[in-house]
């Protein structure tokens, strides 16, 4: 068993949501940590703990980002962190499910991530690195994010389903992350 810590310069958390029914808005979180305990024999995580700074949400549109940080959505002042704590990992390196509890806006719900092991190796400086990709879909209303606006032509401004995509690279605990 080995502990790995996030390399934030080689990792991303992205999300996609429908806008006006027919298009999509994409965004990221730019400040987060993830700690993984890894079974060295299988390269499967046995534990995943993540913490995301709500105020780091970015869609590259300042007014929209301010609205996402407001009480209408994430309410980053009152709920500064989104967190995930795994409860189980099942499957194989090619197709695993990481089940856990996701907390957004002070509401905790079970969520399952579909994940894959992307590889492991030594970087040019001798540091042990490991990588994973994961995806999930959540309904924002399940977490109390209910703000919306009806459209004149029918439908609503912001979709309910949020698609989440993670690309994670981590380095063995105690080794430098950023190189």
The number of distinct structural domains comes to: 1
| Helical residues, percent | under 10%
* CATH homologous superfamily identity: Lipid/polyisoprenoid-binding, YceI-like
What is the count of β-strands?
A: 11
Enumerate the strands of the largest sheet in spatial order, edge to edge or round the barrel: 1-4-5-7-8-9-10-11
Multimeric organization: single chain
Distance between the termini: 24 Å
Radius of gyration: 17 Å
CATH topology: Lipocalin
Mean pLDDT: 89
Percentage of β-strand residues: over 45%
Q: Give the SSE order as H and E letters.
A: EEEEEEHEEEEE
Which secondary-structure class do the elements indicate?
mainly beta
Low-confidence stretches: none
Shape descriptor reads elongated
CATH architectural group: Beta Barrel
Helical segment tally? 1
* Main sheet characteristics: 8 strands, antiparallel, barrel
State the name of the first-level CATH class. Answer: Mainly Beta
């Amino acid at each position: 068993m080995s502990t790995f810590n996030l390399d934030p310069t080689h990792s991303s958390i992205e999300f996609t949501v429908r806008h006006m029914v027919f298009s999509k808005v994409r965004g990221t979180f730019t400040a987060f940590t993830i700690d993984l305990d890894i079974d060295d024999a299988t390269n499967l995580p046995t534990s995943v703990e993540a913490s995301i700074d709500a105020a780091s949400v970015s869609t590259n549109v300042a007014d929209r980002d301010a609205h996402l940080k407001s009480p209408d959505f994430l309410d980053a002042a009152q709920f500064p962190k989104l967190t995930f704590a795994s409860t189980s990992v099942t499957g194989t390196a090619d197709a695993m499910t990481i089940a856990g509890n996701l907390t957004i806006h002070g509401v905790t719900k079970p969520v399952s991530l579909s994940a894959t092991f992307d590889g492991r190796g030594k970087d040019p400086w001798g540091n042990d690195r490991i990588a994973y990709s994961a995806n999930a879909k959540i309904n924002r209303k399940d977490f109390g994010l209910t703000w919306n606006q009806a459209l004149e032509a029918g439908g609503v401004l912001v979709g309910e389903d949020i698609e989440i995509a993670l690309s994670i690279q981590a380095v063995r605990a105690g080794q430098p992350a950023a190189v």
